[in-house]
Specification:
The complex is a heterotrimer. In chain A, 39% of the residues lie in helices and 12% in strands. Chain A is an alpha/beta fold. In chain A, the strands form 3 sheets. Chain A has a 4-stranded parallel sheet, with helices on both faces. In chain A, strands 8-5-10-11 form a 4-stranded parallel sheet. In chain A, strands 6-7-9 form a 3-stranded antiparallel sheet, with no helix packed on it. The longest helix of chain A has 22 residues. The N terminus of chain A is likely disordered. By secondary structure, chain C is an all-alpha fold. Chain C has 14 helices and no strands. Classes of the chains: A alpha/beta, B alpha/beta, C mainly alpha.
């Protein structure tokens, strides 16, 4: 008599996309990050979104739904926040974002809730899982653009693009240029400092690290350090502790909770940097997201790594 | 001696009692047979004996000790039961299977000793399966399997042996072999209680016959007394005659053809 | 089983364990292994072996032996070659416990406890459901109750995960995929206690399982209280399974496949079968963990996936022999 076996693999299949969307910086494809360029590389117009589809032209968007924390924050920063009529569940920055009604989780956006707000522009996260939602919304007659803000270049490009779409191009340009200035400044100031190798875990179980394709890796580079996993082209990757032991980073940079977990764990003591207590804690609200505060993030990182070097 | 007194058994959720006040004795050193049509309660009696179904009322006693008061091990040491059917999910060797008959004596803790080995050897010899020790159960023929099961029951060294339809699916040679074996076992001192459909063989070998009909005893006594057409016909609801077999003179039942509505035999 | 075969089993386990301790992202030379275990010699090797490899391998041995014993005991008692340790809802209940603990942010120490508690609740629920359905020890009723509890747990997990934060989902999924890499020494100690005591009890009752395997009527005829004995095996086997789940998450196929592997070598009686299943299960899980670590560097394949990958072909081969 066949015995039913509870198979969590069924649950895995259902929720696999959730893991992929994860913390927003895991890419489904490799994005080659050009981490040496920090001056605004884009021309004055952006023509396509991160799905490669042409950006809608025409009147500025006035009713926007953004289902991605990064773009929600960006829209507020460039002055288009008042036009937001919907956001995804966990978009919590800036504080005023909380006043915008939620249309459901970012993973499986509630298309009906989105349509009910009668948007003229929907901004989705550019991952394969969201292509389906994007297509459905397009078929329903709504303008959809997809952005994925993994690295600094994408941030700048997407900021400009959003500025174009909302008629706030000037403000967007200002922000982008100001960030570029700060980044150049920080890079120059740390140029002749010794560059420690840094290990940046963003999750402990499973062990997920920042790879070369992420803006955080670029920030490290700008702030005068080297990401010990910089050779991986993806924004993030799952690795094992043994691999970290092998790469033997000089420093570990972690969020407060991750740092506490690592310090308390017996198996992490296999990593020399942990044994030597070389764990630095960074402010995740500042440095963990590709936001308009990238400049401040770079300054903060530089202060952590090379105190006194900047300004 | 196994004594059934006013045994009443009802299956949970059933509309009627499966066994309604049955009383009889299975004497020591004798072969007692319980016969009857399908559904008359024969197998239920065996199940009640081994505790698989509870007694609604009445008693079953082995030499004046209530079977219900014995622990499972004690009961199994004194009464060996061969149930109607047994098929193993995971085939084992004949020698290992017969050895399981010592479980009531050894339990989980004790290792087999010389007494156990002797009992196993004797049982194997009595059942005539000595050459089959190294065979796997699933390679045995029907007759061999049945005798191996008997060997296991005999290895229990119990005073009483109860068998439910031990010759189902056996050909005549094997059937006779089993009945002759049971006869020998009874003569050697055990109380043998047999449930069977095989009226003729039972009539030849049994010392005492109990006829069940719809859960109650319809007749009991010597084969000659019970094997009568006027007793059997209403119970089996089929026309039959009882004659004497030419070999040993035991009563033999011969079923007649069914009557058509015009009173003529079928086919004419 | 011949003494030679037992020796082979033990040697295989030791050999695989040694290889698993030595091999990984960082290779430890076999000659330096003993020093590394003692903490002497090359400090990097010593650290890697003592802090990372040894706990994994010991945990893998315990988890594998527990699952092997549990599966073999259940298959014999239920007379069902498809029975396995999770069938009373152990995996579902444990997963619910783990997901709830993750959602509440309870941290890594409490997670295994929550998983264990969830598993036990599921088993008790299965017994209660079986009793309510009228069959206290009837294996078929218990099996169905286990299915019901498992299905319910499945649904609960989906509800919990559907509306959870992405981090919670990731944590829960990672846990469900199984790993021996997260076990700490204290957890391993507790696991060893459970496997030793409960697993030992199952081996001791191996003879009774031989009798149960004959069928309910035959077993009753041999003096066994079938209902009570069946319940006992279910409970103890599920306890062992729950302990392994608490330590390592869900590791499928081991409890199902290992008893068949041992039977294929000719072992029939349950005492040697349970011991053989323990040894074989241990070897299998150590091997699966090793493969998971070296097949796709730098990532680690989930333990449950590797055991399934090993188990499925074996099962297909066995199916072919049946038909």
């Amino acid at each position: 008599m066949p015995v039913f076996r509870f198979s969590p693999r069924g649950v895995v299949a259902v929720c696999a996309a959730a893991a992929a969307i994860g913390c927003g910086s895991r890419g489904t494809g490799a994005t080659v990050a050009d981490s040496t360029r920090v001056d605004s590389p884009v021309g004055s117009r952006v023509t396509h979104d991160d799905f490669g589809r042409p950006l809608p032209t025409g009147a500025d968007a006035t009713r926007i739904v953004s289902i991605n924390p990064a773009t929600t924050e960006l829209l507020f920063a460039i002055g288009a926040g008042s036009r937001l009529v919907g956001r995804s569940e966990y978009d919590l920055f800036p504080d005023s974002a909380r006043l915008v009604p939620s249309v459901g989780p970012a993973l499986r956006p509630n298309l009906e809730a989105i349509l009910r707000t009668r948007p003229d522009l929907v901004v989705v996260y550019a991952s394969a899982d969201d292509r389906e939602s994007a297509d459905r919304l397009t078929r329903a007659g709504v303008s959809v653009v997809a952005f994925k803000i993994d690295n600094i270049e994408q941030f700048e490009r997407d900021a400009i693009a959003l500025g174009q779409l909302t008629g706030t191009a000037a403000r967007a340009r200002e922000i982008v240029d100001s960030i570029a200035d700060t980044l150049t400044r920080v890079r120059a100031a740390t140029a002749d400092q010794p560059r420690p190798t840094v290990f940046l875990p963003i999750w402990e179980r499973p062990l997920i690290v920042i790879g070369g394709g992420s803006f955080m890796s670029e920030l490290l580079d700008i702030a005068g350090a080297r990401n010990v996993y910089g050779d991986l082209s993806a924004p993030s990757a799952t690795v094992t502790i043994e691999d970290v032991v092998r790469r033997n980073p000089d420093l570990i940079l972690a969020s407060p909770t991750t740092a506490a977990t690592i310090r308390a764990s017996a198996r992490w003591r296999a990593v020399p940097a942990v044994r030597a207590g070389r764990i630095l804690v960074y402010d995740t609200t500042l440095i963990g997201r590709p936001s308009v505060r990238l400049g401040a993030a770079a300054l903060s990182l530089a202060a952590l790594l090379h105190p006194g070097a900047v300004r | 001696m196994i004594a059934f007194r006013d045994v009443v058994v009802r299956y949970p959720g059933a509309a009627a009692d499966a066994v309604r006040g049955v009383s009889f004795d299975a004497a020591t050193a004798g072969l007692t047979a319980v016969v009857g049509p399908n559904g008359s309660g024969k197998s239920t009696l065996v199940r009640a004996l081994i505790g698989r179904v509870p007694l609604a009322s009445g008693t079953i006693a082995l030499d004046d000790v209530l079977v219900g008061g014995l622990s499972g091990d004690e009961r199994a040491r004194r009464i060996a039961v061969v149930s109607q059917r047994e098929d193993l999910a995971f085939p084992t060797l004949v020698s290992e299977y017969v050895a399981l008959g010592r479980f009531p004596h050894l339990g989980v803790w004790h290792a087999a000793g010389p007494e156990d080995r002797r009992a196993i050897a004797d049982a194997t010899a009595s059942a005539g399966v000595t050459g089959l020790d190294e065979r796997r159960i699933d390679t045995l023929s029907g007759g061999e399997w049945q005798r191996v099961r008997l060997a296991r029951a005999l290895a229990q060294s119990a005073e009483a042996l109860v068998l439910d339809e031990p010759t189902a699916f056996l050909d005549v040679a094997h059937e006779m072999a089993v009945f002759e074996l049971l006869h020998r076992v009874a003569r050697s001192g055990q109380a043998v209680l047999l449930v069977s459909h095989q009226l003729n063989l039972v009539a030849r070998f049994a010392d005492h016959l109990v006829l069940l009909h719809r859960g109650a005893v319809a007749a009991a006594g010597l084969p000659d007394e019970v094997m009568r057409a006027e007793i059997l016909e209403p119970v089996y609801e089929w026309p039959l005659v009882v004659t004497r077999d030419p070999a040993v003179g035991a009563p033999a039942l011969v079923p007649l053809r069914g009557r058509t509505s015009a009173g003529r035999p079928n086919g004419q | 089983m011949r003494a030679g075969r037992w020796l082979l089993l033990v040697v295989a386990l030791i050999a695989v364990s040694l290889v698993a301790i030595a091999v990984g992202t960082i290779s430890i030379p076999i000659s330096g292994l003993w020093d590394a275990v003692r903490g002497a010699g090359d400090p990097l090797s010593a650290t890697v072996v003592r802090t990372l490899r040894l706990p994994r391998v010991v945990a893998a041995i315990l988890v594998g032996s527990g699952l092997g014993v549990s599966g073999a005991a259940l298959q014999g008692t239920l007379r069902n070659p498809l029975a396995e340790p999770y069938l009373l809802g152990v995996s579902g209940g444990a997963a619910v416990g783990a997901v709830v603990a993750t959602a509440l942010g309870l941290g890594v120490v409490l997670l295994p406890l929550a998983a264990f508690a969830g598993a036990i609740v599921a088993v008790v629920a299965a017994f209660v459901v079986a009793r309510a359905a009228g069959g206290r020890g009837d294996p078929r009723v218990l099996l169905m109750a286990g299915v019901v509890v498992g299905a319910f747990a499945n649904a609960a997990i989906m509800v919990l995960l559907a509306n959870a934060e992405p981090n919670v989902v990731r944590n829960a999924l990672w846990w469900m995929m199984g790993s021996v890499g997260d076990a700490t020494w204290p957890q391993i100690g507790v696991l060893a206690l459970y496997i030793g005591v409960a697993g030992g009890a199952l081996v001791l009752f191996g003879r009774e399982i031989d009798v149960l395997a004959l069928g309910a009527d035959a077993a009753a005829g041999l003096g066994v209280d079938v209902d009570r004995a069946t319940r006992r095996v279910f409970l103890v086997a599920s306890l062992v399974a729950a302990a392994t789940v608490a330590a390592a998450g869900l590791v499928g196929f081991v409890g199902l496949v290992v008893p068949h592997i041992v039977r294929a070598t000719g072992v029939r009686r349950h005492r040697p079968l349970l011991i053989g299943s323990a040894l074989t299960g241990a070897t299998l899980v150590v091997l699966a963990d090793l493969l998971g670590r070296i097949l796709m560097p730098p990532a680690e394949l989930p333990l449950g996936a590797v055991t399934a990958l090993i188990g499925v072909p074996f099962f297909l081969a066995k199916l072919r022999r049946l038909t």
